[in-house]
Amino acid sequence: MALTPIFSPGFQPRSDLAVIVACDANYLPYAATPALALAAAGNAHDVLIGGPEPVEMPQALMQAGIHHVAARDDALLNALPLDARRSLATYMELFLGNALRGHYRRILVIDADILYERGDPAQLLSADMLGRAVAAVRDNRQWRTPGRKVSEFKKLGEPAHPYFNAGVVMIDTEAFATQDLANRAADFAREHLAGLGRDQALMNGILKGDWAEISPLWNWQFTSASAHLTSMVDPCLVHFIGTRKPWLDSSQGIVPMRMRDAFGRVLARHFPTAPQVSRSTRRHWPEAGALRTALFRQWRAAGPMIRYLNRFPDQYTLIDPRV
After folding, report:
1. What is the pLDDT of residues 122-131, one digit of tens each?
2. Entry pTM
3. Tens digit of pLDDT for each residue in 274-288?
4. Are the C-beta atoms of residues 134 and 176 closer than 8 Å to each other?
5. How far apart are CA 193 and CA 81, in angstroms?
6. H/E/C letters for each residue in 97-160?
7. Which of 104, 153, 183, 206 is most buried per CB count within 10 Å?
């Protein structure tokens, strides 16, 4: 059953393509950074903030053409284990995939802890999805070892499947409905999700490799094993997985200053009452031991990483992850 989304008052779609930054009201100050950058990238796609409940948008975001869409799927929520309910925004790609059929042909749902650097989202959203309802970037656990069986499939007693990171998910809304992914997700959550994970485990659990693979440039998962390659690959979307988010002091000496400053400028200008990104006149360096470990991991992974990157002819061509 399709859901009815709630848009900001007066909102009218300008395109059949949309990029949606998923968050609840608490994460709105951080979601504003990728949203504003994406809105400035062009008008061939809409940019929205998406959450489980309606949120009043700051005037600065509305003036930039950024609106809000709320959606939630009570059938899925009732199927979730109790410990999975803590952040409903985690499941926004599933809620929105079900709710936005008839409003958008394709949507790209991204997490709030992402920095937009470059690239044309509308061109990605127009790519051939190989008949799949979902397209995404392989999780970094399988970047260098694509045949690795991740822990979720081990717990399910499944063979190894390609496994994607749910921080950036592209959905063809018609195919999402045709393939009944909303009901399949509720059934899986009810039977298997407890103790397994949240949205990422849920989506991978129902698809089992039946998704289209996007270049990692559209979900460059920033870790110690990828940090020093970041400037060379020039990613489109940088995803700060883990706990060291660019607006936190713990990211100093790890996340590049310009990336921290990108969030800092938006927070200072549009959300002055929110916790701010601390600024220091002294450059923070990584600890020597941590730097040695990171460089060794990247040296050891050089061959597999280059092979992985070379699987994609360009940043807009999607491939079958099972080939």
Report:
1. 999 999 999 9
2. 0.97
3. 999 998 777 788 889
4. yes
5. 7
6. HHHCCCCCCEEEEEECCEEECCCCHHHHHCCCCCCCCEEEEECHHHCCCCCCCCHHHHHHCCCC
7. 104
